[in-house]
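DM from R.C. (forwarded with permission)

"hey, sorry to bug you on a friday — could you get me a structure for this? deadline for the figure draft is monday and I only need the backbone to look sensible"
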Amino acid sequence: MASGNMKDIKRRIKSIESTMQITKAMQLVSSSKFRKAKEKADTAMPFFNTVYETMCEIASEDRFFNSVYVRGNESDTTLMIVIAGDRGLAGGYNSNVIKLALSRMEQNGGNTVLIPIGKKASEFFSKRNFKILRSYENIGETMTIYEAMDISEIITDSYNKHKSIGRVEIVFTDYISPLVQEARYISVIPLDKISGDSPKSVTRYEPSAGEVFNSLVPKYIAGLIYGAVVCSFASEQASRRNAMENASDNAEEMIDNLSLIYNRARQSAITQEITEIVGGAEAQE
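My reply, with the result:
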C-alpha cells in the first residue's frame, strides 16, 4: 500500500513540475510582450495630446462654438467599444472588463450596439445575442493607427451621417502599475468635456474653425481607440504575467509539500521493512 501511495505522489509531483514549466514559460513571454506594448503606448501619447490640445484651442475661439460632435444628435442608441483579450489565463482581466460593460449598459438604458475587440469579448456578446456592429479579433498585439482610423470612420459615419448612434463609449482596462490594472470606461462622443477656457490663439483656420474641428474628430477618436487597445494589451500581459507567477509559486509550494509527504512515506516504508526483517530474524532464533 505504501509503495503504491508513493508512486501516486511521485506521479503527481512530475505532473505539477510539467505544469510549472508551462506557467514559467508563459510568464516570460508575457513579460516580453508587456515591455513592447508599454513602449508602444508611450510612443502614441504625444500624437493624441497634440490633437486634443488643438481641438481645445479651436473650441476656445468662439464661445458660441457649435458642432454635432459637441452638441450631440437625437439618437438614444449608445455604441460601446469593449476591449478584452484574445486568450485566457490572465486572472480577472477579461471578466472584469465584461462586467463593467454590462454594468454600463444597465446605467445607460436604451439601446446599445457593440464593437467588441478581442476574441473573449466577441464570443461573450455574440453567444448572448447582443447587437454587434462589427467585431475584431487578434489585433491587440499588432494594432496600428491605420486600423484605428478604419474603426473611427465606421463610428463617425454612424454618428454624423446616418445618425444611428447618439453616444460612444470605450470600455477597456487601464494600466496603472505592473501589479494593478483597472477596468474603466471613457466617453468618446459627444465631446461635451472639451474645454472652452484655453487661451485664444492667433491661428486662422480655413475654411473655418468648425470644419477643422470636425475633421480632427476622427483622428481624435482613432487616437483614443489606439491608445485603449494598446493599453489594454499591456494590461492583459501584466495580468497574465502576475497570474502565471502566482501559479508557479503555488506549484512550487505544492511540490515542496508533496515532497515532504513522499519522504515521510518513504521513511515509514523503510522503517516497516527494517522492523519486518528484525522480527523475522528474531523468530528464526
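R.C.: lifesaver. Residues 169 and 223 are 14 Å apart (CA to CA).
me: no worries. The beta strands are 78-83, 112-117, 167-177, 180-189.
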